[in-house]
Write a structure and sequence with these properties.
Elements: E1 2-5, H1 10-20, E2 26-29, E3 47-50, H2 58-66, E4 71-74, H3 84-89, E5 93-95, H4 102-118, H5 120-128, E6 146-150, H6 154-165, E7 169-173, E8 185-187, H7 190-196, E9 199-202, H8 216-220, E10 226-230, H9 239-248, E11 251-256, H10 278-283, E12 289-291, H11 300-318, H12 329-333
Length: 334
């Protein structure tokens, strides 16, 4: 099957080509992200594959459909970038990668926690300049701290288990409890978790209900000096509300691998350009903030799994078999 692959980088091509040796699809790689402006590139392709920051809105999907596209294959778990209702109207199937390597994201989450706590980023810069002073580098024991895990699916569940291994008290909230966390985490309301956690880490999908779950109001209910980590979806946090909280010391540590307006920033080299996003630029000025460019998923195992699952779904569609990784608007409502 002819497949148009958007938002490609060197690693995308390498891993997809390696996985495709067992499938034989005709892959055409496009570096630009999918949008209404670039949808014309997929004309004549029955399948299109996109990544996290592509715009599969109503206009883009309509243009894809007019060009002959009948399958949209996401190389990610999230699907908030797709207008699923419109896809359903067009009878366009949408598949995703529900699980690639939850360990990759969970481990990156813990890495952000530890780096923020022990000021690893600042210590690294100091030592390279010959400065071995310890002033300003004091951290705290993770042991005995309360960690609040918002969303306890595969990734959040692993984060909870790792934090439990550190000797943390783990609070959790989710619409469905994870049975693997029995004896590890205590399920509480979102409000109770926000109020009582020393560390809050986000692992829930982006839905209308979770958008800006971290807002000015929820920040006000947090402990003073809280650590906040987000490796899920950027729009879970209202970034504008974070700035005053950082300035006041309400949030003492912030670790982000995602950002609400990341589509114009991440996955490209902007080192010779001025960043025009004033909120993001302000975040980078704080010494107690670490931002990584949506790399939590980025391990060999995860990218290989993403490629394999994506091509397997495309093959299933081509052969008329059930799509086990399909997502529809009706499924999201349920």
């Amino acid at each position: 099957m002819k497949v148009a692959v958007f938002s490609t980088r060197k690693h995308t091509r390498q891993f997809l080509n390696d996985a495709n040796s067992g499938y034989g699809h005709q892959l055409s790689f496009f570096e630009p992200s999918l949008s209404p402006a670039t949808a014309v590139l997929a004309e004549g392709f029955p399948a299109v594959s996109i990544f996290v920051n592509d715009q599969a809105n109503s206009e883009a999907l309509t243009l894809l459909h007019e060009g002959g596209t009948r399958l949209l294959a996401l190389r990610c778990a999230g699907f908030n970038q797709v207008d699923l209702a419109r896809a359903g109207e067009l009878d366009m199937a949408v598949v995703r990668v529900p699980a690639y390597s939850p360990h990759a994201v969970a481990e990156h989450t813990i890495a952000l926690m530890l780096a923020l706590n022990r000021k690893i980023h600042r210590a690294y810069a100091r030592v390279r300049e010959g400065n071995f002073a310890l002033d300003g580098l004091m951290g705290f024991d993770m042991f005995g701290r309360t960690v609040g895990v918002v969303g306890t699916g595969r990734i959040g569940g692993l984060v909870a288990q790792i934090c439990h291994g550190f000797g943390c008290q783990v609070l959790a909230c989710d619409v469905v409890e994870n049975p693997d966390l029995a004896g590890i985490a205590s399920y509480v309301s979102t409000d109770e978790l926000i109020r009582n956690s020393d560390i809050v880490t986000l692992h829930c999908p982006l839905t209308p209900q979770t958008r800006h779950i971290i807002s000015e109001q929820s920040i006000a209910r947090m402990k003073n000096g809280v650590m906040l980590v987000n490796t899920s979806r950027g729009a879970l946090i209202n970034a504008k509300a974070i700035i005053p909280a950082l300035k006041a010391g309400k949030i003492a540590f912030l670790g982000l691998d995602v950002y609400e307006e990341e589509a114009d920033l991440f996955f490209q080299d902007l080192s010779d350009q001025v960043i025009h996003d004033d909120v993001f630029a302000r975040l980078l000025t704080f010494p107690n903030v670490i931002v990584t460019g949506h790399q939590a998923f980025f391990t060999r195992e995860a990218v290989a799994s993403i490629s394999q699952t994506t091509l397997a779904s495309i093959t299933a569609f081509e052969q008329g078999r059930p799509l086990e990784n399909e997502v529809t608007a009706e499924m999201v409502v349920r």
